[in-house]
Write a structure and sequence with these properties.
Beta Polymerase, domain 2; alpha+beta; NTP_transf_5; two-stranded antiparallel ribbon; 54% helix; globular; 2 domains; five-stranded mixed β-sheet
Amino acid sequence: MVDKFKLDLTDIPKELKLIFKLLKSDSPAQLVIQNPELITNIDWEQFVDLTMHHRVYPVLSPKLKLMDDDIIPQYVKEFLYKQYQRNTFQMLYLSGEMERVGRTFAHDEIPLIFLKGPVLAYELYGDISLRTSSDLDMLIPINQLEKADTLLAEQGYQKDNYIKTVLNDWKWRHHHVTYFHPQKKIKLEVHWRLNPGPGKEPSFKEMWQRKCISKLTSFPVNVLGKEDMFLFLVSHGARHGWSRMRWLVDIRELLHQHMDWQLTKRLLKKYQLYQTGGQALILVEQLLDTKLTRGMKALTNHTCPKELAQKALFYYKQQVNLHTEPVPEAVANYHKHYLFSLMSTQQRLIFIMSFLYPYPEDQSTLPLPKAVHFLYFPLRPFLWAWRKTRKHALP
């Protein structure tokens, strides 16, 4: 039976629809010549804003540069090409630091897998200039965090101590800590999990066994194996509502490579990401015209991934930025319910139960000696109710 499900693209800005078309076309100039309505009444300022917001200008700029000025205004091409050049220099700069950090960690025998940055661009696109990155994300075993902290401090990195914790909840409620080098202006994110908890995910040992060695740098650096990379990109993109089109382009590029789909589906099921994987595949198939194999389509032929894919279009109907505070209240409320819809029944149960575990706010509300922090468990409902009462009592 043919699946006739189609995403409802109503209210998607015309400028973003044009970006979709250009991203999936090998001959964008010919596409526009044959379909002139695509550029009719286009707000080119909005087009540029959306291209930058979705971080797809490195992929689009080389295509637009070859198009005539009567199709794409010259100032649009020039601006995006300058951003493309700046990004290329940034990625080269990060590549050098990535190799240096990899070499330093290897010398101190700290297992290290790079998650994003230039190495991801190289593995997905074969060219570091075709993807943006503002920092370096790396994964290490949780028992190596203290050693890594000392090592990075010796290298001039400063730790952002934004994590507040009680009863070691940081180990599962958070997933990375941030470092910044004030002279180099480089940010590092050191992960001990792929995503914040609660939730199951592959252990570092499992991912280390399936890792690949990148050929990007002269000193070998490690990157996730293709199947673990799919899990990571799917979970990360879905968690952010696919609010950057770049994350879907990443998925598309990964699907063009050889993957063990039997293993991938087993991992998706084991870590309860099967529906999320289906969501990603529907989005790349319909928005980026990506052909799916029979094995891939098996993930999409259910109601849940279709509903999740449609829900993700909320983030395209408006220019949603979840990374800049404050997030508008309406967007924050939608995103909260969207994240809950991504969860399986078991994940929802664990998520709800996690509210019974003490939060740092409980410690702030009623400071107790560390030796009796266990009392926050029975006290938590009362402390939560007290904060809610005080919040409503304030003008």
